[in-house]
Write a structure and sequence with these properties.
alpha+beta; Vanillyl-alcohol Oxidase, Chain A, domain 3; 18 strands; 21% strand; FAD; FAD-bd_PCMH_sub1; oxidoreductase; Oxid_FAD_bind_N; flavoprotein
Length: 494
């Protein structure tokens, strides 16, 4: 996908097409192990044991899958989705074939003190799934999707959204999730999971009944409400990579809607502030069946678009869109709508998803924006940068902020600052993105969405996790006392 195509896709899909993916895929199958007895109120220091050098040949011989070192087949396949990132040099890429391979990788990484990261779709905005001098556990081949007669979907954590949606639609079921077809289910769900059905059915994480995860001690656990419940709580919104390597999920699903009306409005240039102001009040009062984003496109002057879908027929949508246009006072330059079934709607929002270069950050709109023009001005004269406002509310707000790790239950929306670039220009572009996200924090709220992880975000622990931060750190200390899964913006940092 070209940079222009990528931006058009994000504008239409609400910026949901490139969600962070730090943890990956696989299969379940072992007996659940009780919660470890480490005191969760104590942060254990890193292990002081002497590390044995990593035996790469020994690791290769123990794997059912393959191990690729630099220059070998399979090594370059672990590169991140974001081509603007500086190129890293992992020590090796393990293309695993099952849970036992994952356990072997973790065991040998722990013993040798080798950094380890899981990789599935590779959509981590910061490239944390392919770090320097690390063992990358590539889990994409573990991608099964099965829908049981009771409607529960058993999904390997490496499954891509395109595969998930196809299997669910074939069974007449749906799962609220993102839009980009190559995003992996794991990274999406572990960070919360936003999409065009979020207001109607909630976050992807809200449907997570259980997760199979191999923790730092090499144990394959089933985290659910009935076992390792603290871990289950943490996995629903903490982001990937913090507690181990997730290998599969069980999700509750919903009956697939028979009708979804998708729509798109483009407003005349120069009216972005009026449209954004009207949109925030309009979407706050909309029924949960309505999901609609507002995208402010950078330029001279900035422009605004509103796109989304409604769970139901087109008649009611037309009335609601007329009200939005009236409230904004802005001229509509282009308008379209179409009613389709669930499978067709998911394909409509998917677009294409080739690798691309970008810098992005986010904030959470925690309160009504008193002066939307201040936010619109952030992208004035910046044609390569957009602000993508994705609504929350609806079913998201019916869950208590402490019921899962996702803390932004009462917020109006997330806003992503997204700018196209490539590696040579990334530093200059990043400064514009950083300035914008800090200004948004001053005007709208200091929260941020962990699936849009940003290495430049200075206040990221509190922004991503809010009042859930301390509990998450305690759980991380319980399951990973030696920091095996520590990384730059993890609950345990390097």
């Amino acid at each position: 996908m070209s940079a222009v195509d990528r931006r058009n896709f994000l504008r239409a899909a609400g910026g949901l097409g490139a969600l962070a993916l730090l943890t990956a895929c696989g299969e379940g199958g072992q007996t659940t192990t009780p919660t470890p007895t480490v005191d969760p109120t104590t942060t254990a220091p890193p292990s002081t044991t002497t590390a044995a050098p990593m035996d790469w040949d020994g690791l290769k011989s123990r794997l059912k899958g393959t191990l690729a070192r630099p220059g070998q087949n399979g090594y370059e396949a672990a590169r991140p989705f974001n081509t603007a990132l500086a190129k890293t040099s992992p020590e090796a890429v393990a293309q695993v074939r099952g849970v036992e391979d994952v356990q072997t990788c973790i065991d040998m990484a722990r013993r040798s003190h080798t950094p380890i990261a899981a990789r599935s779709g590779g959509h981590s905005y910061a490239g944390y799934s392919c770090p320097d001098k690390a063992l990358v556990v590539d889990l994409r081949s573990l991608n099964s999707v099965e829908v049981r007669d009771d409607g529960v979907a058993e999904i390997g954590a490496g499954a891509r959204l395109s595969d998930v949606y196809a299997a669910l639609a074939a069974s007449g079921r749906c799962l609220p999730a993102g839009t980009c077809p190559t995003v992996g289910i794991a990274g999406l769900a572990l960070g919360g999971g936003l999409g065009v059905l979020t207001r109607k059915f909630g976050l992807t994480a809200d449907h997570m009944l259980s997760a199979r995860i191999v923790t730092a001690d090499g144990v394959n656990r089933m985290a659910s409400a009935d076992g390792d419940s603290d871990l289950h709580w943490a996995l629903r919104g903490s982001g990937g990579g913090n507690f181990g390597i997730v290998t599969s999920f069980e999700f509750s699903t919903e009956a697939a809607p028979s009708q979804l009306t998708v729509f798109h409005l483009e407003f005349a240039p120069g009216s972005a502030a009026e449209v954004l102001g009207a949109w925030q009040d309009w979407i706050s009062e909309a029924p949960p069946e309505m999901w609609a984003n507002c995208v402010v496109e950078g330029g001279s002057p900035p422009k605004a678009r509103v796109s989304g879908c409604f769970v139901g027929a087109a008649g009611r949508v037309s009335t609601m869109l007329n009200q939005l246009a009236k409230n904004s006072g802005a001229r509509i330059a282009n308008r379209s709508s179409q009613t389709m079934n669930y499978a067709s709607a998911m394909r409509h929002f998917a677009g294409s998803s080739g690798k691309t270069g970008f810098v992005a950050s986010s904030r959470v709109v925690e309160k009504r924006m008193d002066d939307p023009s201040k936010l619109v001005s952030l992208v004035n004269d910046l044609p390569d940068m957009d602000l993508l406002f994705d609504p929350l509310g609806g079913a998201v707000s019916t869950v208590d902020a402490t019921a899962s790790a996702f803390p932004h239950r009462n917020a109006l929306a997330t806003v992503q600052v997204y700018a196209d670039t490539e590696a040579g220009q990334a530093r200059a572009v990043a400064s514009h993105v950083d300035n914008a996200q800090r200004a948004i924090a001053d005007h709208a709220g200091r929260g941020a969405y962990v699936n849009y992880i940003d290495p430049a975000q200075r206040d990221w622990p509190q922004a991503y996790y809010g009042n859930n931060l301390n509990r998450l750190r305690q759980i991380s200390s319980t399951y990973d006392p030696d920091g095996v899964f520590a990384f730059a913006q993890g609950l345990r940092t390097r």
